[in-house]
């Protein structure tokens, strides 16, 4: 593996052994393809930044209530949403 420049392709073995270098390379290249036995296995790319500049990561949901005057934490909202979907038979 060439460590002097940004990585664009890498073997699966090198990926496992040098994951942090691949992550660092994503800041430059925006895409890294992992190969196994000379065949592309998968491609890694960072999340696209949305119009708010947060790459779609939720930190809270603006569902204000007495219990959550500043909005509900995303993990709690996600748990409640999963429970509702389970109750409806969606999952």
Q: How do the helices and strands line up, and which of them pair or pack?
A:
Elements: E1 9-11, H1 12-17, H2 19-29, E2 32-36, E3 39-44, E4 60-61, E5 72-73, H3 74-87
Parallel strand pairs: 1-2
Antiparallel strand pairs: 2-3, 4-5
Plain-language structure description:
- The chain has a three-stranded mixed β-sheet. Strands 4-5 form a two-stranded antiparallel sheet.
- The chain has helices spanning 12-17, 19-29, 74-87; strands at residues 9-11, 32-36, 39-44, 60-61, 72-73.
- By secondary structure, the chain is α+β, with helices and mostly antiparallel strands.
- It folds into two domains: 9-44; 57-91.
- Helices cover 34% and strands 20% of the residues.
Task: From the structure above, extract its key features.
5 strands, 34% helix, 2 domains, single chain, alpha+beta, 3 helices, 20% strand, 91 residues, two-stranded antiparallel ribbon
Overall SS class: alpha+beta
| Oligomer state of the chains in this structure | single chain
Please state the CA-atom Rg, rounded to the nearest Å. 20 Å
Number of DSSP E strands: 5
Sheet with the most strands, sense and barrel status = 3 strands, mixed
Q: What's the domain count? A: 2
Order of helices and strands: EHHEEEEH
Count of DSSP-assigned helices: 3
Strand line-up in the sheet with most strands: 1-2-3
**For the residues shown, what is the average pLDDT?**
77
Report low-confidence residues grouped into runs of 5 or more. none
Give the helix level as a range of percent: 25-40%
- Beta-strand residue fraction: 15-25%
């Amino acid at each position: 593996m060439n460590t002097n420049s940004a990585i664009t392709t890498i073997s699966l073995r090198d990926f496992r052994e040098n994951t942090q270098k691949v992550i660092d390379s994503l800041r430059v290249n925006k895409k890294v393809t992992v190969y196994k036995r000379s065949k592309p296995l998968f491609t890694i790319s960072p999340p696209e930044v949305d119009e708010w500049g947060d790459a779609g990561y939720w930190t809270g949901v603006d569902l204000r209530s007495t219990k959550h005057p500043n909005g509900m934490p995303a993990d709690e909202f996600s748990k409640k949403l999963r429970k509702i979907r389970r109750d409806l038979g969606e999952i």
